[in-house]
Amino acid sequence: MSTRESDRITSAQQTLDILYEMSQLLNTQLDKETLATCVGMIESGVNPEALAAVIQELRRESSVLSAQPATGSHR
């Protein structure tokens, strides 16, 4: 691996670490892997506001599903 590539990777990791710290301060509840995926999607052209709306909707749906009683009988 070249020094230039190594510097780029180090810089990207430092940037992700800073973004993760900010996300923790903002209580986004995103883990580092999810945050990195979101950053990659935004860098690829995904609208950040649309991405945030999708994440919020998925969380709402997950809450609803978690609150529903399990189906099936226990005899």
From TrEMBL:
<dbReference type="Pfam" id="PF12554">
    <property type="entry name" value="MOZART1"/>
</dbReference>
<dbReference type="GO" id="GO:0033566">
    <property type="term" value="P:gamma-tubulin complex localization"/>
</dbReference>
<dbReference type="GO" id="GO:0090307">
    <property type="term" value="P:mitotic spindle assembly"/>
</dbReference>
<comment type="function">
    <text>Required for gamma-tubulin complex recruitment to the microtubule organizing center (MTOC).</text>
</comment>
<keyword id="KW-0963">Cytoplasm</keyword>
<dbReference type="InterPro" id="IPR022214">
    <property type="entry name" value="MZT1"/>
</dbReference>
<keyword id="KW-0206">Cytoskeleton</keyword>
<dbReference type="GO" id="GO:0005819">
    <property type="term" value="C:spindle"/>
</dbReference>
<comment type="similarity">
    <text>Belongs to the MOZART1 family.</text>
</comment>
<protein>
    <recommendedName>
        <fullName>Mitotic-spindle organizing protein 1</fullName>
    </recommendedName>
</protein>
<dbReference type="GO" id="GO:0000931">
    <property type="term" value="C:gamma-tubulin ring complex"/>
</dbReference>
<dbReference type="GO" id="GO:0031021">
    <property type="term" value="C:interphase microtubule organizing center"/>
</dbReference>
<dbReference type="GO" id="GO:0051415">
    <property type="term" value="P:microtubule nucleation by interphase microtubule organizing center"/>
</dbReference>
<dbReference type="GO" id="GO:0044732">
    <property type="term" value="C:mitotic spindle pole body"/>
</dbReference>
